[in-house]
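Chapter summary example.
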Amino acid sequence: MKNILLINAEGVQTICLARSLRKQGHRVVGFCNHKMTSGYVTRWLSERYKAPDITLQTEKFKTFLYEYLRKHQIDLIIPLADDGADFLSRYKEEFEVQWNLKCAIPTFDTFNMANDKQKLMELCEKYGVSHPKTRKLPWNIREFQENLKEFKSLETTAEYVGFPAMIKPNLSQGAKGVMRVNNMQELIDKYPEVYRKFGACTLQEYVEQPDYYYNVMLYRDKKGNMDNYTIIKIRRFFPIKGGSSCYCETVEYDYLLNQCRELLEKLNWIGFADFDVLEDVYTHELKIIEINPRVPSSFQAAFAAGVDYGKVFVADAFSEIVPTFDYKIGKQVRWLGLDVMWFLFSQNRFKFKPSWFRFFGKDVSYHDGAWNDPLPMIAGMFAGVVKYLDPEFRKSKLNG
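The structure predicted for these 400 residues follows.
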């Protein structure tokens, strides 16, 4: 039995991962920054604690974690959200030496190559991996506004990328700070505000996509093997203009899988990675837009497809034989809390196939729990409504 700590355990991805780890016989502890969340209330956690927010109270969180590690044995720490992954990668060597444990995250230098959107796009360009046209924007606002050279640089960038385009912060969680601009004047007007709030940004080609996008989950183990994967076609998402999956299907797509494998190989990545990929509606070209260097909210799709990443995490962390699973396509996974919101706001609520009202079936499962674990669904719906009522959250999600 291993003692495993999940940080950022408030998300729906906690449910399926904790379920896998518990069924293996491990003790699973969750640190959550809120109690009224899907992860906190799932029955699969052995223990749960309300911890300080990693982003807003970083030092308090570190102190909280240290106090816990002094009193309890932990063998493996797995981060489940962006801020936790960033935090753990920065302190990986320190924690592993001082506390004699494993951290399921690459070292910060490798992590940051994937997490920093500008660096990732530069790597894609260098190795010919398909991606949207991307260029960095001026970093000095004063020079941008007053320096003719910087302004000319901005014009050159805009000319290369074209319009419409997306202003994208290099480091941000989810879609925060992402803003669409349709011409040069909008770029000049909107960019300073995004820069002041989020720091360094890129200008990225706007990809006109169909009513779906792809997500690829991959694990590259210490030996460089990438046998375990999951590819989902996300067909319903919320917010409607671009958000998290609320209905997806597992699919096979060799070309896409090979592109993602190649990128992890170039990064010399060790561990789990989650790719977001858009398909150009005109050319049908598949373009990698980012890597989430942690498990996504759509993680249940992997387990539904027969890929037990809980076993992979543990085996690779402790240098055991990493199992390979038979991947199954055609599995349908819903996030009921978000899917209710999609139904309320979508004009296609009665046209979508398969029917939104198909709640049961041997190939149907849920990101946010199960009928024998209903509390996460209830808590998730409540938390989701509260979050969506926050005007700042809606602005961050809908401005793009």
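To summarize the output: The longest helix spans residues 82-99.
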